[in-house]
Amino acid sequence: MPDTRLPKKAFYSELKLGKRSRGGQFKRSKDCLKANLKNCDISVDTWEQDACDREQWRKMIHNDAAKFEANHILQAKQKRAQRKSRQNQALGQTGIQCHECRKTFLAKIGLYSHIRTHN
Ligand SMILES: [Zn+2]
């Protein structure tokens, strides 16, 4: 790809002037691309050489993206299980029970909304 093409200019360009704001910086598209490469276990330094062989590159991208997605789903499930176990522990300690069906709620408003369903 010639150096004058817009995608190449955007990916390799750097700002010479400018201030960085306090706190977290906004991510540029370049940063997002690098983060995605890292998430897919693709080397940020050598991806250009890997991409020269298009067929191999497409296989690699497809496989690594599938691995990343499976790992991401697994992590989300683990995170949900941890959150649910924490909620269940909290319910065991300070739950408020419905007098009619013995369902437990964390907050009074949840019980209040639930009691309306019994009417
Ligand atoms: Zn109830």
From TrEMBL:
<dbReference type="InterPro" id="IPR036236">
    <property type="entry name" value="Znf_C2H2_sf"/>
</dbReference>
<dbReference type="GO" id="GO:0008270">
    <property type="term" value="F:zinc ion binding"/>
</dbReference>
<keyword id="KW-0863">Zinc-finger</keyword>
<protein>
    <recommendedName>
        <fullName>C2H2-type domain-containing protein</fullName>
    </recommendedName>
</protein>
<keyword id="KW-0862">Zinc</keyword>
<feature type="domain" description="C2H2-type">
    <location>
        <begin position="96"/>
        <end position="119"/>
    </location>
</feature>
<keyword id="KW-0479">Metal-binding</keyword>
<dbReference type="InterPro" id="IPR013087">
    <property type="entry name" value="Znf_C2H2_type"/>
</dbReference>
